[in-house]
Design brief:
Number of strands: 0
Shape: globular
CATH class of the largest domain: Mainly Alpha
Radius of gyration: 21 Å
Structural class: mainly alpha
Mean pLDDT: 87
Helix content: 55-70%
Distance between the termini: 62 Å
Strand content: under 5%
Number of domains: 2
Length: 218
């Protein structure tokens, strides 16, 4: 008696994105290509062009899907600095948990399309809280630089290798600059960084009392 062949799901945009997402999450996007994706789904590479115009468009969709996993939805009544801690913390956690997907953000061609929805969502969230445009536009540059640098450093194996070297020597043997360097990336320093950013926003906005909150649902 012959084995019953497993019925494949119809090829769709959603299935393509989900499969590419899983493959990149496991092996990284540098080794990803449409031929490998086709082999995974049992189709030829040409089959994808009825859903995506290029490999870059597909990778941008995967990038956008990854950003949607982060906790960036508005919470009615939430104060603006609480929003900063919540959203930035979520982005950091996802970057550490999925380093291969996070590296998509550092390919300019992919990120320029993949980050559009996420960026619009975050900016809209804070502006609707009442943060003045000119204040948030200045804060955005600092937030983005801090968060990107922090998450990138933590999501790479370089950090792990450096930590192992430091622990093998013993912290008492480290020079002052080494102690500062190795202590720069941990939970406490991340929270300290957000607090400094929040205080900077208050300083920029002064004398505004900065009582900005996410609107309640109507």
């Amino acid at each position: 008696m012959s084995e019953k062949k497993e019925q494949r799901r119809p090829l769709s945009r959603e299935l393509i994105i989900a499969t590419a997402y899983r493959m990149i999450d496991t092996n990284g996007y540098k080794s990803f290509n449409l031929r490998a994706l086709g082999a995974e789904l049992g189709v030829t590479a040409m089959a994808f062009y009825s859903h995506f115009s290029s490999n870059i468009e597909l990778l941008a969709a995967v990038c956008s899907e990854f950003m949607d996993t982060m906790d960036t939805d508005p919470v009615p009544g939430e104060r603006w600095d609480g929003t900063l801690f919540r959203t930035m913390g979520s982005i950091r956690r996802e970057a550490i948990a999925h380093p291969h997907l996070f590296t998509l953000l550092f390919d300019e061609e992919i990120a320029s399309e993949g980050l559009k929805r996420h960026t619009e969502k975050i900016v809209t969230l804070h502006l609707e809280q009442g943060i003045p445009f000119e204040v948030f536009s200045k804060a955005w540059a600092i937030i983005d630089a801090f968060l990107t640098g922090f998450a990138l450093h933590e999501s790479t194996t370089a950090r792990e290798e450096l930590s192992l070297k430091a622990s093998s020597k013993g912290s008492h043997q480290l020079a002052a600059w080494q102690e500062i360097y190795f202590s720069a990336y941990n939970d406490k320093s991340f929270v300290n960084g957000i607090q400094i950013i929040a205080e900077g926003i208050k300083s920029i906005a002064a004398p505004d009392p900065c009582e900005w909150y996410t609107p309640d649902k109507t």
